[in-house]
Amino acid sequence: MSKYMIIDGNRVDFDSEKNILQVVKKAGIHLPTFCYYSDLSIYGACRMCVVEDQWGGIIASCSTPPKDKMIIKTNTPKLHQHRKMILELLLASHCGDCKVCEKNGSCRLQLLAGRFGLKEIRFKQEEPKHEIDKSSKSIVRNPNKCILCGDCVRVCNEVQNVGAIGFANRGAKMVVSPAFNKNLAETDCVNCGQCAAVCPTAAITITKSTKEVWKAIYDPTKRVVVQVAPAVRVAIGEAFGLNPGKNTMGKIFKAMRMLGFDQVFDTSVGADLTIMEEVAELGKKLESGDTKYPLFTSCCPAWIRYAETKHPELLSYISSCKSPMEMFGAVLKEYYKPADKEEEKETVSVAVMPCAAKKSEAAREEFIRNGIPDVDYVITTNELIHMIKEEGIQFTKIEPEAPDMPFSIASGSGVIFGATGGVTEAALRKVVSDKTNKSLQEIEYSGIRGFEGIKTADISLGDKTVRIAVVSGLGNAEEIIRRIQSGEDHFDFVEVMACPGGCIAGAGQPFSHKPEKLDRTAGLYKADKTSVIKRSEENPVITQLYQNDCLKGREHELLHVHYQRKE
């Protein structure tokens, strides 16, 4: 016989629900929350989700397990007053610049204040008393907007295993801060931005570069070229009412031309370049017989930062390949050098990324040659959304267009880089000798696709069996490293993405839960399935590029980098 609860007089059956909140949601009731995030541990601090039991007691629904025949109410005068009081207190201690706040319209505190019809705050408004931390190239902290929900602290500790921020002080003086009140740039922060992704207000946000990009677009002496990462195409449409996973790449190209960008490209071309170089590196690694550590991928800058600060012993085993963004950025700067000289212009390279860490990556000294960065500005998917809306472009109504020549073709392998396991699958397509559709299917079903944090597979390559791991989430990366160093497991190749699910779940994307992330992943695989070219080595643009003067003989200079330990 099934277990049940009585919620507001109605019977609701439950089975595997972990807390009352999940059962209430099953009943079609949306309780307000600030600190509840299903992928994180239960914190129970905000007390917005409280319910009333049959004896009139108030309990937090997020941290209380459901009991058979339990009777609760979700909306009583006592609960209504309780929730409004919490909102008033939060608003009184909150920075009141809502009209110009970047989360105006999407701030959860603002939305709940509207939902509860708050028209006045009966408590004295506190003046901002904390300095805004802009030390990071990727992340801005404004403690004056913090509501102490703890989401950022938990995602940094539990998911990413970084621990760059935590709670400091007690009572009314409690704040979220790096240890010893340091600036964020002085910590081991990896710039992944997952803290900003889960923040319900604008206490933690991603740095903005749209002002600089607009300035470059309006400057007649500048040639502004832009590349767009694979994951952007399946998420940007959500901001315009389209379903998650809808491939809008053609519309993105059109919109960017309408914004004033001179040349528009797909970063998937850079991903194809990465595969060509990385597979060659993997071949050398397998031939060398060095089995102490596997070859780790290098596409994710947050993973690179994590290795630099926590595992410098791994740096010599991380692929020397630049990320697709940096490879393509270097190629674009070299390609336009003759035209810049002839036309007396300067090429400004912009990248649209799903990722906060890409902003820090672009600013690294390793990617600045002769004082000129390979990528001048990185804007996130959300920043591009704001630019499109600012110009009044009706995104859903514009006709799709193709990218510009000569980098107008990308393979399906390059597109799937945006999903966890995509880099590995693209590499396997290149390295296997069987180039038939059957081999594509065998790779697809080898176990490297999926949303699990750790996936492993054994792949036969000729007379060798190559053991592979695919990891997303830095906490999972730490687990794989532990297994390797303890001798518990052995791998030849390990793909690491800092964001759970890969780039489709980057902090620069529209906020999403697991269902949307799964749809985005499916959208990338659908784009791959319909692509004419499946493998990176079959891309004629790549073939031509290796024969072109801008790259020929300069592969190591333009496409590779070596990282050093960071103190």
Automatic annotation (TrEMBL):
<comment type="similarity">
    <text>Belongs to the complex I 75 kDa subunit family.</text>
</comment>
<dbReference type="InterPro" id="IPR009016">
    <property type="entry name" value="Fe_hydrogenase"/>
</dbReference>
<dbReference type="Pfam" id="PF10588">
    <property type="entry name" value="NADH-G_4Fe-4S_3"/>
</dbReference>
<keyword id="KW-0004">4Fe-4S</keyword>
<dbReference type="InterPro" id="IPR019574">
    <property type="entry name" value="NADH_UbQ_OxRdtase_Gsu_4Fe4S-bd"/>
</dbReference>
<dbReference type="GO" id="GO:0051539">
    <property type="term" value="F:4 iron, 4 sulfur cluster binding"/>
</dbReference>
<dbReference type="GO" id="GO:0008901">
    <property type="term" value="F:ferredoxin hydrogenase activity"/>
</dbReference>
<dbReference type="InterPro" id="IPR001041">
    <property type="entry name" value="2Fe-2S_ferredoxin-type"/>
</dbReference>
<keyword id="KW-0479">Metal-binding</keyword>
<protein>
    <submittedName>
        <fullName>NADH-quinone oxidoreductase subunit G</fullName>
    </submittedName>
</protein>
<dbReference type="InterPro" id="IPR003149">
    <property type="entry name" value="Fe_hydrogenase_ssu"/>
</dbReference>
<dbReference type="InterPro" id="IPR036991">
    <property type="entry name" value="Fe_hydrogenase_ssu_sf"/>
</dbReference>
<dbReference type="InterPro" id="IPR050340">
    <property type="entry name" value="Cytosolic_Fe-S_CAF"/>
</dbReference>
<feature type="domain" description="4Fe-4S His(Cys)3-ligated-type">
    <location>
        <begin position="78"/>
        <end position="117"/>
    </location>
</feature>
<keyword id="KW-0001">2Fe-2S</keyword>
<keyword id="KW-0472">Membrane</keyword>
<dbReference type="InterPro" id="IPR000283">
    <property type="entry name" value="NADH_UbQ_OxRdtase_75kDa_su_CS"/>
</dbReference>
<feature type="domain" description="4Fe-4S ferredoxin-type">
    <location>
        <begin position="137"/>
        <end position="170"/>
    </location>
</feature>
<dbReference type="GO" id="GO:0016020">
    <property type="term" value="C:membrane"/>
</dbReference>
<dbReference type="InterPro" id="IPR004108">
    <property type="entry name" value="Fe_hydrogenase_lsu_C"/>
</dbReference>
<keyword id="KW-0408">Iron</keyword>
<dbReference type="GO" id="GO:0008137">
    <property type="term" value="F:NADH dehydrogenase (ubiquinone) activity"/>
</dbReference>
<dbReference type="Pfam" id="PF12838">
    <property type="entry name" value="Fer4_7"/>
</dbReference>
<dbReference type="GO" id="GO:0051537">
    <property type="term" value="F:2 iron, 2 sulfur cluster binding"/>
</dbReference>
<dbReference type="Pfam" id="PF02256">
    <property type="entry name" value="Fe_hyd_SSU"/>
</dbReference>
<dbReference type="InterPro" id="IPR017900">
    <property type="entry name" value="4Fe4S_Fe_S_CS"/>
</dbReference>
<feature type="domain" description="4Fe-4S ferredoxin-type">
    <location>
        <begin position="180"/>
        <end position="209"/>
    </location>
</feature>
<keyword id="KW-1278">Translocase</keyword>
<dbReference type="InterPro" id="IPR036010">
    <property type="entry name" value="2Fe-2S_ferredoxin-like_sf"/>
</dbReference>
<dbReference type="Pfam" id="PF02906">
    <property type="entry name" value="Fe_hyd_lg_C"/>
</dbReference>
<keyword id="KW-0677">Repeat</keyword>
<keyword id="KW-0520">NAD</keyword>
<keyword id="KW-0411">Iron-sulfur</keyword>
<dbReference type="InterPro" id="IPR017896">
    <property type="entry name" value="4Fe4S_Fe-S-bd"/>
</dbReference>
<dbReference type="GO" id="GO:0005506">
    <property type="term" value="F:iron ion binding"/>
</dbReference>
<dbReference type="InterPro" id="IPR013352">
    <property type="entry name" value="Fe_hydrogenase_subset"/>
</dbReference>
<dbReference type="GO" id="GO:0042773">
    <property type="term" value="P:ATP synthesis coupled electron transport"/>
</dbReference>
<dbReference type="Pfam" id="PF13510">
    <property type="entry name" value="Fer2_4"/>
</dbReference>
